[in-house]
Specification:
Blueprint: H1 3-18, H2 63-66, E1 70-73, H3 75-78, H4 89-94, H5 96-101, E2 106-109, H6 136-148, E3 152-157, H7 167-172, H8 211-225, E4 239-242, H9 250-263, E5 268-271, H10 278-281, E6 291-293, H11 295-302, H12 320-332, E7 338-342, H13 351-354, H14 359-369, E8 375-379, H15 435-438, H16 445-458, H17 460-464, E9 466-469, E10 471-473, E11 478-485, E12 494-501, E13 507-512, E14 521-525, E15 531-535, E16 541-545, E17 549-556
Parallel strand pairs: 1-2, 1-8, 2-3, 3-4, 4-5, 5-6, 6-7, 7-8
Antiparallel strand pairs: 9-11, 10-13, 11-12, 12-17, 13-16, 14-15, 14-17
Amino acid sequence: MNLRVRTWALIWLSALLVVGCSTVPAATSLPTQSPTQTPQPTDTPQPSIVYTPTPEPVVDGPTWFSEGILYEILVRSFYDSDGDGTGDLTGVAARLDYVGSLHAGAIWLLPIHPSPSYHGYDVTDYLAVDPDYGTLEDMRALVRAAHEKGIRVILDLVVNHTSDRHPFFKDAKGNPQSKYSDWYLWTNDAHTAYQSFGGYKTMPKLNHENPEVVDYVLEIARFWMDLDGDGDYTDGVDGFRCDVAKEVPLSTWQALRKEMRGLNPDSFLLGEVWDMNARNLTKWYDEAFDALFNFPLYGSLAGSNDAIEDSALAGADEPKMARLTVLAENSLFPPGYQIVQFLNNHDTDRVMSDVGGDWERARTAATLLLTLPGTPMIYYGEEIGTKGTKGRGNPYWDEYRREPMDWYTAEAGSGMASWFKPGDRNNKPDDGISVEEQSGADGSLLEHYRSLAALRLAHPALLRGSFATAKVTGSEMVLAYTRHAPASDGSPEELFLVLLNMDYMAQEVSLELSSAYAGPFAAVDVLSGEAWPDVPAGAPYAVKLPARSGIVLQLSRP
């Protein structure tokens, strides 16, 4: 089924649940449409905001993650401390202040273990560091430095499969008498044929029905949580991002979470459950993951992860599905759930490529990302407009989505990684895409990210406030929503209105704000300081929005 049609079908049903439709029983299967059909927009009733006390969480994840920003790093591409062309752990430590300038409270390191591949998702030794990246002592130093700056460290955990060069697999292949013969999923008695991730024979799948495999996963976690080996499980990594989580039994993740919480109650588990159906995500919160990536919303916003300029962000689709997705998830997911919002990652085309190199659209996408509920994730380079699309193969594929971080105008200087710089790469010298060109520059994408991140962390309404959509009349290309936090602990009540025009043209629209209290409100653009027309009491709010724009208004009682 076409991705967009499938997503619409899911959201249509979920939206019914949100607005209280009692005619759809829980066991009803999802409605389907022919791939040739185009879903027709319908008027969905707008729920009013009812500000009630937050229920006790069912998912009791640590607040440090829900109230922070996550920054994703491919170490190989980030910062090269020793001039060999490859980014390393010492380089990441050297750039923690830069990460801090984006107000990121945590970094997620893609796999750092020895591996025959550049990306590291086929591990040969889970208890070691890839020599290209440094040593265990370098990792200890990075974690110490990050913690000193208030930044947590999340490590990629790849236990759905190993490398076919892993010693356990090499011993077991073709040897049914091996100590590790039951560690993998064989498809013949001779143990010469086996299941593998994605059909790639270099990545044989582990057998998680074997308790020894699960015990080994727990051993890996203990090792990285206690890097100093002194029994203090707060001096190592703070959590794990679990790769290909949906192909591993839920019971493994439940065992891992239980083990980690017993060692460090503040530890954290993030699941990569790549599924566009929000209903399918709910079970993974059951004593397993503290947070999941919001793939349903990503699909609504970015379209196909392997195609560009086909998305709502690019103006090729209406943003209505994104609105309904957030509302549906609020209804479907358990209290206390945490969700990671993202525009792109190492497995997708980069957002700047998706919007066709349009800087205004990239700014609008950033405004959306950093004002939605949940934890925003920034993929290294996203904040400066790094481009990246899937390659054609022979020999490169995803390398083009993972090009070196561009620190300098000339793409040369201390720390610049050079491991992947083919002539047809996406990013070039003097293209406006670098930290040097944008840092401190008024109106730059980097400074826009920094301003939004600071704004989010400074305001409870944007950090953890309620979310409600505003009814928009006049354009299907405008998305509007409010974020609200009641007065508490000496902090005043806050109300923000976010306006996003995805169209190529300016739009004049009328908004109806659902609110627990009547206006009027004074409105100020918090990014520019510009006053906007007051929002009238009980009447539609008429505004004109520039093309390809994102506006954040703070509303207050005059």
